[in-house]
Design brief:
Helices cover 26% and strands 34% of the residues. The protein has helices at residues 3-21, 41-51, and strands at 25-34, 61-67, 69-73, 79-82, 97-101, 105-113. The strands form two sheets. Strands 2-1-6 form a three-stranded mixed sheet. Helix 1 crosses helix 2 (41-51). The protein starts with a helix and ends with a strand.
């Protein structure tokens, strides 16, 4: 389960950001996960829940936004959006497609609690 190593790296970044901000807690983490990122959202959630115990993010909520596959057709120049991994244009059936979105794994938002 490579999601555990992804979460371990994520926590390094989260703790660094929290330290720089002088935060005592991380309360929310939002990730964007493309359907072709190679990451299983359910396993990512499980790994996050395991890893956060006894950390600055013990009470943090993880929000995962799944990003569909967005393809641009080089034949008809239309855009196709897919929730699956079918690589054909929904408009003309062509397989001459360019991936525009759906492969990313992005840390989109961190909410911190800072004591004054």
């Amino acid at each position: 389960m490579h999601e555990l190593s992804i979460v371990a790296n994520l926590f390094e970044l989260l703790e660094e950001q929290a330290k720089e901000a002088g935060a005592q807690k991380i309360t929310l983490v939002k990730l964007k996960v493309g359907v072709l990122s190679g990451v299983v959202p359910e396993l990512l959630q499980t790994a996050f829940d395991i890893y956060k115990k006894d950390t600055i993010a013990t009470e943090a909520e993880l929000i995962i936004e799944t990003v569909p596959l967005r393809l641009l057709c080089h034949q008809c120049h239309q855009e196709t959006i897919r929730d699956d991994i079918v690589f054909t244009c929904a408009h003309c059936g062509s397989t001459r497609l360019e991936k525009k979105e759906g492969t990313e794994l992005i840390l989109e938002k961190i909410e911190l609690e800072i004591d004054d």
